[in-house]
Design goal:
Chain A: Pfam families: Sigma70_r2 (PF04542), Sigma70_r4_2 (PF08281). Chain A: Keywords: Sigma factor, Transcription, Transcription regulation. The complex is a heterodimer. Chain A is mainly α. Helices cover about 70% and strands about 0% of the residues of chain A. Chain A folds into 2 domains: about 80 residues, RNA polymerase sigma factor, region 2, helix turn helix motif (Rna Polymerase Sigma Factor, Chain: A, Orthogonal Bundle); about 100 residues, Winged helix-like DNA-binding domain superfamily/Winged helix DNA-binding domain (Arc Repressor Mutant, subunit A, Orthogonal Bundle). The chains are: A mainly alpha, B mainly alpha. The interface between A and B is large, with 45 and 29 residues.
Chain lengths: ~200, ~90
């Protein structure tokens, strides 16, 4: 094989290359889709659509370049163009309600005080995770997106700018505002966990 | 020693200009995201060694990032998804 351009590959070769280069991104891509849509079926559809689009444009994809950023960009555009209208609005989690529940010593119908105490010590990690998820899901989707890309997926500001089609300065300011917003939502919880603000 | 630094920072912020602490606040995200230049890093680190409020802001910002990166549960990809993607691609001419 002297040339590596997609057009000269057979269908089998192209499929094999596609799978080898792009399918390893499935896990982070699905997680991103889920955090955007907040629905497993929608995430499933969005990811499938993303891979089909990527396949159609695979000839333009340069082997060895940033496959993850490329797929994230396609997914994010699909979400904006087609999905956003029909996907569910971010779950408006009533933070005080959740917080009240975990702080409550008399949870009714949940096995009483003793089991609540056990639950606290056994699944503190889960509890923090749930709390972070609730706070994050309650953010506007643009804020949620930058936090996911940066903190969960570890993209650089430059990669984020390419994925989101915005200047790096906007990435920075959006991230800053998103974090302030998240901080606000988590503040009460952090205090209850012993972090003083 | 501590009081000396506190005084210095108060002086800076009183004169109406951007204080050193304000500049540090703007570097917080760059620092925790590993996006700060070498100069910015050394400027930042020198400052937080002496300034308790900025040191604490840095700790808090790191904690916030850590809450997302370390505690947000990843959802499990349905097993059927990879298979259906492969199948649909093979159908595509």
């Amino acid at each position: 094989m002297s040339e590596q351009t997609g057009k000269q590959l057979s269908k089998e070769e192209k499929d094999a290359r596609f799978e080898a280069e792009l399918l390893p991104v499935l896990d982070p891509l699905y997680n991103f889709a889920y955090r955007l849509t907040l629905d497993e079926d929608d995430a499933n559809d969005l990811v499938q659509e993303t891979y089909l689009k990527a396949y159609r444009f695979f000839d333009y994809f340069e082997q060895g370049t940033n496959a993850k950023a490329w797929l994230f960009r396609i997914l994010k555009n699909s979400f904006i163009n087609e999905f956003r209208k029909k996907s569910k609005q971010p779950a408006k989690v009533d933070y005080s309600e959740v917080e009240g529940y975990y702080n409550s010593d008399d949870v009714e119908g949940e096995g009483g005080v003793a089991s609540t105490t056990d639950m606290r010590t056994e699944s503190v990690q889960d509890l923090i995770g749930d709390e972070v998820a609730s706070a994050l899901n309650a953010l506007p989707v643009d804020f949620r997106t930058v936090i996911i890309l940066c903190d969960l997926e570890g993209f650089t500001y430059e990669e984020m700018a390419k994925i989101l089609d915005i200047p790096i300065g906007t990435v920075r300011s959006r991230l800053h505002r998103a974090r302030n917003s998240l901080k606000e939502k988590l503040e009460k919880y952090a205090k209850s966990m012993g972090y003083n603000s | 020693m501590e009081s000396k630094f506190t005084e210095a920072h108060q002086k800076l912020s009183e004169d109406g200009h951007e204080s050193e602490c304000d500049k540090i606040a703007k570097l917080l995200d760059l620092m925790i995201d590993g996006e700060a230049s070498t100069e910015e890093q050394s400027y930042f680190n020198t400052h937080i060694e002496e300034c308790v409020p900025c040191f604490e802001s840095h700790q808090k910002q790191k904690l916030l990032k850590g809450l997302v990166s370390g505690h947000l549960k990843r959802v499990i990809v349905p097993e059927s998804l990879a298979l259906s993607i492969k199948a649909r691609i093979q159908e595509t001419v």
